[in-house]
Every structure is written in structure tokens, then in C-alpha cells.
Amino acid sequence: MIYAQILAGGKGSRMGNVPMPKQFLTLAGKPILIHTIEKFTLEARFDAIIVVCPPDWVSHARDLVAKTIDDPRVRVIAGGAERNDTLMKGIDYIQRTFGTHDDDVVVTHDAVRPFVTERIIHDNIEAVLKAPAVDTVVPAIDTIVQGQTATIAEIPVRETMYQGQTPQSFQIKTLVASYAALDDAQKASLSDSCKICLLAGHPVTMVRGENWNFKITTPYDLRVASALVEKRA
């Protein structure tokens, strides 16, 4: 079976003094979360679309979905304390609700990337049906420097550098086994879900993203997103 999981568990601390998590803020007249869910409902191959929210906001999210999304595949559940806790909460829900099958895959996506395209979602599905893990990336435009504080330690070759986006997609059986094999220190080091599979020795396939598939994290990002929606309209 093919699942989508929309990760809406963040609190949005970098958005500043706002009354709610950033995924519920309004973009062009409706919540960012709803924009994102709508993109996934366009893909008929998803058996279920799981939206994972902060526990205190599950009721609010369910109300929004009931009012705006006419698709019985969409389910809203509570997430965990951190991103990968939230990811695994969604996986656990899938396994408990639909059972476990060797060929199950999941396409995971940030709730605050509302400009994901049908092509990106399609490419993730096609890739994850053949590979254990998939990451959506765009080539790095600027030179990347690595270092700490004010000192540069290394300048990698830009041609081999990419910026990670989402969706990130996984064969569920591989993801669950890889996460279970990590020790506490490895779990604490995770800054990206694909690293779960990398640490377990599994290859991660890359698919092409788009520069406009950006994450709305700060007030500036929200202004850019609003301008982009207005221009498209």
C-alpha cells in the first residue's frame, strides 16, 4: 500500500509572536496545512493521507479538514515531541490501522511546504517503489562552507552539494528496522529523516525538487509565499 504522511507537528518558534503553530497560519485565505493536504489529495494512488499534529491541536486540525477537505483518506492524529518521534507515530498508526505488508511505502512531507508539485509527489512514489529511501533535493546554488563559530573548517565542492527538501519517502519495513537499530546517541543526532536509513547502511535515492518548494519557517518566508500565491492568481 502507498501512504502519505504530512508532518505538522512543529510549533513554529522561528515564526515569532504568532497565536498558533505556523502550519495553521493563513496563506491566501486558508491555512497553510490545507494548501499542502490538497496537493496530496490529487494523487489517486495514496491509500491514506495521515496528518500528524501537535496533540493540543488535533481537534483544531480535524475541524479544518472536515470543513475544507472532502476526501475520506485524510486522517488526523497526534504526533510526538520531536520530528522523528512524529514520523514514527505516523508509521505506528499506519501499522495498527491498516496492518503491515512487505511492500508498504510512505511519502512524508513538511506541512509548511505548500508549493510541492504533483510531479515531485509522482517522482517520489515511482522512486520509493524501487529503492528503500528517497530524498527530494535541489542543487546548491551558493558555495557551502562548513565550520563552527567564526572559523571555516572546510569548503566542499559545490557541484556535489544539494539542499534537502521534502517529500522524503521510505519503504516502511526498512524505515522501522533502521530506526529500531539506532542507539540513543544516534537518534539524538538525527537532523533529517533520511539519515535514519543512511546510518543503517541503506542507499538513499535522490529526486529533483524545485526552488519554489520551500519551507515556510519565518515571517519573511510567509511574505514570499503570499507574494507567490498572488502572482500565480
List keywords for this structure.
alpha/beta, 36% helix, Spore Coat Polysaccharide Biosynthesis Protein SpsA, Chain A, two-stranded antiparallel sheet, seven-stranded mixed beta sheet, globular, 233 residues
Provide the number of structural domains.
1
Which structural class matches the secondary elements?
alpha/beta
**CATH topology, anyone?**
Spore Coat Polysaccharide Biosynthesis Protein SpsA, Chain A
Spatial ordering of strands, largest sheet: 5-4-1-6-10-7-11
The total count of helices amounts to 8
Q: In the CATH hierarchy, what is the architecture at level 2?
A: Alpha-Beta Complex
Fraction in helix: 25-40%
Q: Can you tell me the CATH class?
A: Alpha Beta
For the record, give the distance between the C-alpha atoms at the N and C termini, rounded to a whole number: 35 Å
GO molecular function, one term: 2-C-methyl-D-erythritol 4-phosphate cytidylyltransferase activity
Site (Transition state stabilizer): 14, 22
EC number: 2.7.7.40
InterPro entries: IspD/TarI, IspD/TarI_cytidylyltransf_bact, ISPD_synthase_CS, Nucleotide-diphossugar_trans, TarI
What is the topology?
Elements: E1 2-7, E2 26-27, E3 30-31, H1 32-41, E4 48-53, H2 58-68, E5 74-78, H3 83-98, E6 105-110, H4 118-128, E7 133-139, E8 146-148, E9 151-154, E10 162-171, H5 172-181, H6 184-188, H7 194-199, E11 205-208, H8 219-232
Parallel strand pairs: 1-4, 1-6, 4-5, 7-11
Antiparallel strand pairs: 2-3, 6-10, 7-10, 8-9
Protein name: Ribitol-5-phosphate cytidylyltransferase
GO molecular function: 2-C-methyl-D-erythritol 4-phosphate cytidylyltransferase activity
Organism: Lactiplantibacillus plajomi
